[in-house]
Specification:
By secondary structure, this protein is an alpha+beta fold. Helices cover 40% and strands 24% of the residues.
Length: 111
């Protein structure tokens, strides 16, 4: 089991940048957007449109997901980001993150 948290910390700005960069899948512009969403979560707290789940191992961010309700809908949600660190791949962390997001959306009334 990995330590899980749902509130972003200021250190996540660099940690998310490092994590999504390390995957090798995202462009510089996409990486900037990932960090911007964390910034929004930090600035707005619970009033942010973005929800997060982070899994850490020591000081290393192993994986995270960012999701939120689709604007102008009643029960539709979007998964904006899901990523796990290359050193964590093969540990089923992506599956754990996805399950957390699906369960959280259902608890919030998403379908």
């Amino acid at each position: 089991a990995y330590p899980m948290r749902t509130s972003p910390r200021p250190t996540d700005l660099l940690a998310v940048r490092a994590l999504v960069s390390a995957t090798g899948f995202f462009s510089d512009a996409e990486i900037d957007i990932a960090v911007e969403l964390v910034e929004d979560g930090l600035k707005k707290g619970s009033s942010s449109d973005y929800h997060f789940v982070f899994f850490d191992e020591g000081e290393t961010l192993l994986g995270y997901a960012c999701f939120g309700q689709t604007p102008c809908t009643l029960a539709t949600w979007d998964l904006y980001w899901i990523a796990d660190h290359p050193m964590a791949q093969g540990r089923k962390l992506g599956t754990i993150l996805e399950k957390y997001v699906v369960d959280a959306v259902k608890r919030a009334g998403g379908t």
